[in-house]
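tool_call: predict_structure(chain=1)
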Amino acid sequence: MSVWILRVLFLSLSTLGGYAVSQVRPELIDNGLGGVFIGFGFGGLLIAIDEMVKGFSLRAFSAASFGLLLGTVIALLIDNSGLFIYVEDKPVRWLIRLCLFLGFGYIGMILAMRSNKEDFYLIIPFVRFASQSKPENLLVLDTSAIIDGRIAELIEGNFLEGTIVVPRFVLKELQFIADSTDPTRRARGRRGLEMLGRIQRSPRNEVKIHEADFREESEVDAKLVRLARALGAKLITNDYNLSKIAELQSVPHLNMHELARALKPAILPGEIFNLKIVREGKDKGQGVGYLNDGTMVVVNNGHGFVGQQIEIQVQSLVQTGAGVLIFADVKAPVAA
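tool_result:
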């Protein structure tokens, strides 16, 4: 909305400027109404151009400017090389020069915009040295990762190093969830705000609130992917779909669930450990308990130990669609 206020203000100033020119320099614009129309048209044209290039980033603009400069220099060298000294017809020579500068300028801009920053290191070597002198590892957090809370433990344990970037639109989403009328969503939102405060208090990593908001994108996931790509950052999330979108767009990402799955301790047949039996199983005589990661353990002859901590020995593991199912036998009750 603030952009449109600025556009209306600019259009009004352009219209007034056109009218003022008609009054000060009547030889240029002979009447006030014509000045108003010319000023309004000029402002409207610039606003239309602004609307067309709204997805054009500053990096793309700087690359296009550099490409235009490089193409112009090459065209100037060719023009001054003496290749066209025998062209005596001035209109023809002017046309050749026009095509030369337009052609090389266009090719330079296109090549610069299609190139990545590694290509510019060949032309401007000090850029590589400047970037390596102060490496910056940016980590963009989404709402699910903040609410989960394990990200705070990873940061405090020094497993994640770098600058934590929390977009302003993620903060708004957290606040919206915390203000929800649904008690479950409200509790999740408040937990997310508490976890974010814990991350900010941690001396391990610097936390920055990023103000970028891609208004042309309606979905938070799309904004996160665009921000991570623009910053060259790694996206931290718990959302499976967001991870896949980031993967398809070649954006570095880390899924907390996949990390937890990779760090899950391996349980092998014959292993002995303690387990609390929480309920009876489906079949007669069975008891059921759960590991810390939620894996279900079916204990033969464990029905009489419901509510007790017992020692069990793993007999076999069965892979199911929902994960791994462990079957075990009772070794001995654990003394209280």
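agent: The chain has a mean pLDDT of 81. Proceeding to next step.
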